[in-house]
Each structure stands twice: as C-alpha cells, then as structure tokens.
Design goal:
33% helix; six-stranded parallel beta sheet; 2 domains; Rossmann fold
Length: 390
C-alpha cells in the first residue's frame, strides 16, 4: 500500500479527526452488534497511546436530510466507552461553534464522538464548506472506514483535502488483502462469485477473469450463465437482459469459468418448499434453482483444493433459508480447511462465514460490501485516493 498510515505521522499532542464506520445495527437505542466498533479499536487505541486526543465521526443509517434522534450515534459512543473502559463524550452536532469549543477543550487521551455526519445534507454531496468545517476540528485526519471508502462524501473524501490525511490500521489491512487479489496474486488464484444478479457484478467478473486462474460462479447469477449455455432454467431467477453478456463472457473465458452441474431445486420460493436434487439441464417446469447440488460441491471443491489464494464474494444459494444454505456453508468450511490465503468480500459472504462458524479461520474478512466489490472491479476508491501518498 503506497498510502501513509497513522504510523507515518507524529501524533503527540495533536487533535486527531478520525472517520470510522460505526454504521451498526441498533434496537431500542442499544447497539446489537459491535463488530464494526471493535474493528476500529486498534487504531483508536494507538492514537490515544501516542498522546493525542481523538474526535470520531461516522454516518449511521439513512436519515432524511436532517437530525433524527433514532439515527444518533449516542448508543455507539456508549458501546465504545464500555470497550475502552473510559468516558467517550458525545457532541451535539458534527460541526459548528459548540463542537469547535468542545474540540478545543480536549486533552491528550480524551475521546469525543461527533454526531451522525448524514444529519448534514452537504455530507453526501461532498460539500467543500462542510468538509472545511470538519477540518477545523482536528490537526490530522485519519480514515479507518473502509466500508465507506467507495463514497466521495465530505467526511470520507472532502475533508482529506484540508488536513494531512492518513489511513488507520483497518483501512491498511483491507487494502493489503484486497490488493493481493488484484495486484500480483499468489497462484493458483481462484475467485468465487455468487449472489443474485450478474448485472451487479459484470465488471467484477471481467476484472477477475483477467487476473485469476479459475472463476467459480454460483448463486442466482449462475442461472443466467446456464441459460446462456442453453439450459432451461424453468422458474429460476434469470436476468434475460444479461444473457447476451453472459454468452460473451463464456466465449472469452474458456475453461477458466466453472459453473454448477447440479442443483437443489424447489417448487416455490419459500423456506418450507419441497426440494429435490437434479442436474442443471433437467429442471422441471414450475421449479427453481435455490442452491448448488452435491456434484457441484465436489467439482468446486476439486478446484479449490489446488488454490493458494481464494477471494469469495456472494453466497451459493438462498442462504437465508436454512435448507438452501448448505452449499454456501459447505464452501465456507472447505475454505476454512484449505490452507490457502482466503479473502472474504463483505456483505453476505462475511455473514455466511460467520454463520458457518468459520470466520476466525479466514485470512481476512472484509468490513465493506460495496467497497470491496468496487475494489475488485479495479476502481479507485475516492476515500483511499484522497489520502497522502508515502
């Protein structure tokens, strides 16, 4: 990674303005999953240990263009306070005279949580005036919010133009592992893509095909490729508008692309549906493919056995229905035992390895769904591009 990190700047006595991803699930004003808060702890602790004071900013949810108590970061500040074992002050706003006064009063080791950045309309518009007001609060800007790095917002991109801007440890780790998948990967390199739609992932497919040795495709997006090969997919989800694209990809990919050969099918889209296993070219009318079958699992397993690097983004079936989650969980367990470097894209894949109980056995589980996808497409992320080069 050619970007500066918190290790490359002197923090002693400085006010550090740090963008974190505390967009956490809440219920009745209490954080129900603090994984994202814990992910930021190494950088937070390092900054405080260096004798700096710390101001944290994040978005939470999608408030409708103004302050809304249900989207306050107060609960996140309380959860962080428990994890750090010290008080975390809560600011009444993200910017403004009162917040500037609180920032000026901070002593080394103090922590101040700013209010939800999306309470300001200028955040998502990347308004330079809002970014300037944010920059007034600190001496150094640290971005540790990889999950928001694909958005050019005031708190992720704009503010970096007005202060020395470096990455935190979480951001550094994400860029290192996802970077392995896109620049100079270990070989054999196998990528696995799943999820519902091929249209969401065409650029990822094309970018990965140019870099990997094998590309395994499962989930709903496999249906469109199988339809492009001439299989009658019956009632399975098929994107008719993407069949031509799938045909072109198949033609150029040759034997690099590995598709399901059998499927667990259901007579309706329901957790309690009747199911059976059939070859992909024998799906009866009125039935739909909801998971990969045992022959496919053996085929995918044989490919994965040879891999030294595996990148996985997207489930193999409708894994929110337990009966159609077996393919996804089986892939997760294969990866856990593979001995390869395993990089899991965020979103559903991260949730799948967690549900399968093997998240800790993966080399790296990304904290950013959309951000990791755009990175794998080969796009430059605005929040990363804005950081100072080494």
């Amino acid at each position: 990674m050619n970007k500066k990190t918190v290790r490359d700047v002197d923090l002693k006595g400085k006010r550090v303005l740090m963008r974190v991803d505390f967009n956490v699930p809440m219920q009745d004003g209490v954080v129900t999953d603090d994984k994202r808060i814990r992910a930021a702890l190494p950088t937070i602790q390092y900054v405080l240990d260096q004798g700096a004071s710390l101001l944290l900013m994040s978005h939470l949810g999608r408030p409708k263009g103004g302050p809304d108590p249900q989207f306050s970061l107060k609960a996140a500040a309380e959860a962080l306070s428990k994890l750090l074992g010290k008080p975390v002050q809560m600011a009444p706003d993200t910017v403004g005279p009162e917040v500037e006064k609180m920032a000026a009063a901070l002593k080394p080791g103090d922590v101040l949580m700013l209010e939800n950045t999306r309470f300001h309309k200028g955040e998502e518009k990347n308004d330079p005036e809002l970014a300037r007001q944010m920059a007034k609060l600190g001496d150094i800007y640290v971005n540790d919010a990889f999950g928001s790095a694909h958005r050019a917002h005031a708190s992720t991109e704009g503010v970096a133009h007005y202060l020395p801007a470096v990455s935190g440890f979480l951001m550094e780790q994400e860029l290192e592992y996802l970077g392995r998948a896109t620049q100079n990967p270990e070989r054999p390199y196998v990528a696995i893509l799943g999820g519902a739609k091929i249209s969401d992932k065409i650029l990822v497919v094309e970018n990965l095909l140019a870099k990997c040795d094998k590309l395994i495709i499962g989930g709903g997006m496999a249906n469109t490729f199988l339809a492009a090969q001439g299989c009658d997919m019956a009632d399975s989800l098929v994107e008719s508008g993407s069949i031509e694209t799938a045909r072109n990809i198949l033609a150029s990919a040759g034997d690099k692309l590995v598709l399901p050969v059998d499927a667990v099918i259901a007579d309706r889209f329901d957790a309690e549906a009747d199911s059976q296993v059939v070859d992909v070219d024998k799906i009866p009318a009125g039935w739909r493919m909801l998971d990969i079958g045992p022959k496919t699992l053996a085929l995918f397993g044989a490919v994965l056995k040879t891999a030294r690097l595996v990148v996985w983004n997207g489930p193999m079936g409708v894994f929110e229905f337990p009966r159609f989650a077996e393919g996804t969980f089986a892939i997760a367990k294969l990866l856990a035992e593979s001995g390869a470097t395993t990089v899991i894209g965020g979103g559903d894949s991260a949730s799948a390895v967690k549900k399968a109980g093997v998240a800790k056995k993966m080399t790296h589980v990304s904290t950013g769904g959309g951000a990791s996808l755009e990175f794998l497409e080969g796009k430059e992320l605005p929040g990363v591009a804005a950081l100072n080069d080494k």
